[in-house]
Amino acid sequence: MIVVTDAWIFNGPIQHLLATVFVAMFIGISYLFVKKVQDLEIQLVVLKEKNSVLKTESENLKRKVELLEISYKQFVDRSEENKIEDAKQDTPKVAFYANTVTDHVNLGVHRTLVFGNVITNIGNCYHNSTGSFVPKVSGIYIVNVQILCSPGYELRTELVVEGAVKGTHYIGDSTHYSNGGGMAVVHMDAGDCVWVRVATTDGENDIAWESSFSGFLLYSDS
Ligand SMILES: *[C@@H]1O[C@H](CO)[C@@H](O)[C@H](O)[C@H]1NC(C)=O
């Protein structure tokens, strides 16, 4: 028979057992707590390292962006300068305009119309003593011929480039002044000779002073 006494309750095997269980639980919980703190410390160190790597990377990126901005600005500046230089170099200027045919009455077939009165002669390629335009630059040229003929006459004229006919014009009216001519877009080599001549005529003609020969370089070959 078990006799329950005060001593048994307060100082008995149950108390020992409970105390042992409490101590064990305390040690277990402490161990887990310390383990957890250690894990967190390790994680904190790892995060710190990652943070410093990211900081370095972001600083490097910032420096790279700054360098890119500088070289982009230099590139833009240089290309603007180049554009201006190219424009200066690539535009040879050729333009001429003359009127008043020096000998203007009864010109025969293949006689050259010499436009003596020079109004414009940029590049000095038009020669008013011979009536010929001799470009110093190869390229595409716009040339215009206008012939005003006195009443009662009829003729045809031609634009000639190095002996080859590049345009023909008819002028004639029995009772009124008549106007003829035309524009041509032609390739010319430097040194080519370009002039206007009579192609056909009924023998008599009278070319009015308002008649003109003009042209300009549209763009050069190079
Ligand atoms: C050519 O032009 C010059 C200068 O303008 C002028 O003195 C001369 O008389 C002109 N020649 C002819 C043939 O018209």
UniProtKB/TrEMBL annotation:
Record keywords? Coiled coil, Membrane, Secreted, Signal, Transmembrane, Transmembrane helix
Concerning Gene3D superfamilies, the annotation shows: 2.60.120.40
Keyword Methyltransferase in the entry? The reply is no
Can you tell me which residues the record assigns to a coiled coil?
37-71
- Domain of life of the organism encoding this protein: Eukaryota
**Gene Ontology CC annotations of this record:** extracellular region
Transmembrane intervals: 14-34
Residues annotated as domain C1q: 89-222
What is the organism field in this record?
Magallana gigas (Pacific oyster)
- Cell compartments where the protein resides: Secreted
* One Pfam family, short name: C1q
Q: Which PANTHER family match?
A: CEREBELLIN-RELATED, COMPLEMENT C1Q-LIKE PROTEIN 4
Q: What is its main location?
A: secreted
From the Swiss-Prot or TrEMBL record, give the protein name: C1q domain-containing protein
Question: Which SMART domains would you find in this protein's record?
Answer: C1Q
